[in-house]
Design brief:
single chain, 688 residues, alpha+beta, six-stranded antiparallel β-sheet, 15 helices, 37 strands, 26% strand, globular, binds ligand MIG
């Protein structure tokens, strides 16, 4: 990324903020308050309010519910493990405190480097007013003005550092399920794909691979030799991706627990005793990821698995998710004992139930332990939203301590701006609902704006039973997302594509991902290296086109394309708005691409169930890989074609980025030129 200085940003400081690690370049402090806002202090809280125009759009906030335009709801930065991603939710797993307000009159963006609770009242209470409130009032506020939305994102990247670079294989198709436990389970999944010619690059291992859900262990009966398993999988060009959770079991027979105690790496209560809460292995300690030494310790725990050949991980439960604390449980039993044998009316019954339901992720627990932020003692709830970021950082720093030159795969559930330097993220426990296919699309651009380029949702949905049509439609979006992973919960219908009658259609769509990979990878890497965006709302590219600005279910992809997936059940197609002339590409299989030039404007487009659709801007060309692929390793030998729609005597070039896909060695950029063609679209083999 060019080492320019962010030119549109002013920094303001309120209270006594901790240093979060989000920012990589220190800006001078501007005195006073930002002119655009009226600032109010109320106890410790500080609010920033702003009147907005009816036409103003609001973008950003990373992963959150509702549309791309965030206007009309209250969001709350408070990292929460919540499996119900419904439209009233204020918080999900991560906090991404970057918001862009843009309209015909002006663009303004702000980043609150504040790891405590923040509310974002985006024209919820009052239709034309935004009120952003930091509850602690300790923050660095960065305000960007006189810039376009894309420039604001670029400046944010200069301020907070470049995005994480995954390895090329991380762009392949990955199969996952909560339930794969043994060598046999994993082999069955690989065979299921390879035998049918379904491309596959990775298989995720969920908590069941562990010995009693203990991090950095594996069940020796079910996986007798991890290194041998990894080796055998690599022969098949498959990477295994184990999960690592946040909690470490309270048990001195556990090696991680012992060494964590020796290294004094766990968070403590006010009185200095160790904080405990239950997660998967039962009562657990929690690493102080906000402490440099503890982070280094945690990172070192990855070594044995790295030595066994593992080169990718996912980090879960790092909001942190807490099932209950012993104190909370004791209080709950007291209440239950009080009520035992009584004739409970509705209120009593409700109280008893909620007593146990509210044990998880309780505010009281979050306020009962402390971090040692390299010498500064801070109560957890003041910096709650940093925990997942800290874990991701510890993990990637651990992998890089093992091999600084290798690009490892890592994605996390919880994060914070700054965490985008260390890993990607997945969107947590969605469901096999059509509305969540749309939500998947709508969550993507906000995450990109916050620097999280490598992201994706559980394709097919995590909870509930998927159907063959929903999974196929979902894959038709998934082929465009950098992380392309099919994941599902234990207890739901098996979701590997070969479990479905229409698996061949699904397979064809997945092979189209590999066909598109030269383009997808190149656009991703250019966005990561140049501080750009891989996905954008149309409003970023067509600010003067009012219709384009209000499109909330299509996305610009890279510099040349637009996507508009079908996300409704039983649909025979969908409405699409084209902000300019584009070439429609119907992706049915690698042998079967149907090309149709289309004019700017509104269209109802029939889209058969087995077709993914992509639009390439007129006058642009994109590279495709020719051939059949089992995995990303096969791409190295691929011949390229160029695809596009050029006007009479028009020429076009595509700047292709390539590198080894494995290390941080600089890649190459070269321009592929189309042949001169007369009219219509082209598909040209082997461009120079
Ligand atoms: O409490 O590891 O979001 O992807 O399969 C549930 C089991 C814990 C939540 C993750 C999900 C994962 C599941 N985990």
């Amino acid at each position: 990324m060019p080492s320019q200085h962010p030119s549109h940003i002013l920094r303001y400081v309120y209270g006594d903020p901790v240093s979060t690690g989000a920012v990589v370049c220190e800006l001078p402090v501007t005195a006073g308050d930002p002119a655009a806002f009226s600032v109010r202090h109320d106890g410790t809280a500080v609010s920033f309010s702003l009147d907005v125009e009816p036409e103003d759009l609001m973008f950003g906030l990373g992963q959150s519910v509702r549309g791309m335009n965030k206007r009309g709801h209250i969001y709350r930065s408070w990292n929460t493990d919540d499996v119900m991603h419904v439209e009233e939710k204020e918080s999900l797993y991560g906090s991404y405190n970057f918001l862009i307000i843009t309209g015909p009159e002006r663009t303004l963006a702000l980043f609150l480097d504040d790891p405590g609770e923040i509310t974002w009242d985006l024209c919820h209470t009052s239709l034309e007013q935004v009120v952003i409130t930091s509850l602690n009032g300790d923050l660095n506020l960065y305000v960007m003005e006189d810039c376009t939305p894309a420039e604001a994102c670029h400046d944010l990247r200069l301020l907070t550092g470049p995005s994480y670079l995954p390895p090329l294989w991380g762009f392949g198709y990955i199969q996952s399920r909560w339930g794969y436990a043994s060598r046999e389970d994993l082999e069955k999944v690989v065979r299921g794909h390879r035998d049918r010619g379904i491309p596959l690059d990775g298989v995720c291992m969920d908590i069941d691979y562990m010995d009693r859900y203990r991090n950095f262990t594996w069940n020796r009966e079910k996986i007798p030799d991890l290194a041998a398993l990894v080796r055998d999988m690599k022969k098949e060009h498959i990477h295994l991706v184990p999960i690592i959770d946040a909690g470490i079991p309270v048990d001195e027979n556990d090696a991680a627990c012992r060494s964590g105690l020796e290294n004094d790496s766990f968070v403590r209560r006010e009185d200095g005793t160790l904080f405990q809460a239950a997660v998967w292995p039962g009562l657990s300690y929690f690493t102080d990821y906000l402490n440099t030494r503890a982070r280094a310790w945690f990172g070192s725990l990855y070594r044995p698995m790295l030595e066994a050949g593992i080169d990718g991980f996912w980090n879960d439960m790092n909001e942190p998710s807490l099932f209950y604390s012993p104190e909370g449980m004791a209080r709950a039993y007291e209440i239950a004992d009080e009520m035992r044998g009584k004739n409970l009316d509705l209120n009593g019954n409700w109280r008893l139930q909620s007593t146990f339901q509210s044990l998880a992720n309780s505010r009281q627990d979050y306020a009962s332990f402390y971090h040692d932020m390299d010498g500064r003692k801070v109560r957890h709830d003041k910096v709650h939203n940093l925990y997942g970021f800290g874990m991701t950082r510890a993990s990637m720093e651990g992998m890089h301590a093992y091999d600084p030159d290798r690009r490892f795969l890592l994605f996390t559930r919880s994060s914070y701006i700054g965490g985008h330097r260390y890993g990607g993220m997945w969107m947590g426990d969605n469901r096999s609902w059509w509305s969540h296919l749309k939500l998947n699309l709508q969550m993507l651009p906000g995450l990109n704006m916050c620097g999280f380029l490598y992201c994706g949702a559980d394709l097919g949905g995590f909870g509930s039973d998927v159907t063959g049509d929903l999974l196929l439609r979902w894959l038709e979006l998934g082929i465009f997302t950098p992380l392309m992973r099919n994941h599902s919960s234990t207890g739901t219908r098996e979701q590997e594509i070969y479990q479905f009658k229409n698996w061949e259609d699904m397979c064809n769509i997945i092979t189209c991902r590999y066909l598109l990979l030269p383009y997808i990878y190149s656009e991703f890497m250019k966005a990561a290296l140049d501080g750009g965006l891989y996905f954008r709302p149309l409003a970023f590219d067509y600010p003067d086109d009012r219709d384009a600005c209000h499109v909330d279910d299509q996305l610009m992809l890279g510099g040349d394309c637009m996507i508009a997936p079908v996300y409704e059940p039983n649909a025979i197609g969908r409405s699409v708005y084209l902000p300019e002339d584009m070439l429609l590409v119907r992706l049915i299989s690698i042998e079967n691409l149907i090309l149709e030039p289309m004019n700017k404007g509104y269209h109802f487009l029939p889209v058969a169930l087995n077709e993914a659709i992509l639009f390439v801007k007129r006058g642009h060309v994109i590279p495709l890989a020719d051939g059949h692929f089992r995995c990303t390793d096969d791409l190295a030998q691929a011949q390229l074609s160029l695809l596009g729609w050029l006007g009479e005597k028009e020429q076009a070039g595509y700047e292709l980025y390539t590198d080894d896909g494995r290390s941080y060695a600089a890649g190459k950029r070269r321009v592929l030129r189309s042949d001169r063609v007369d009219g219509s679209y082209i598909l040209r083999r082997n461009p120079s």
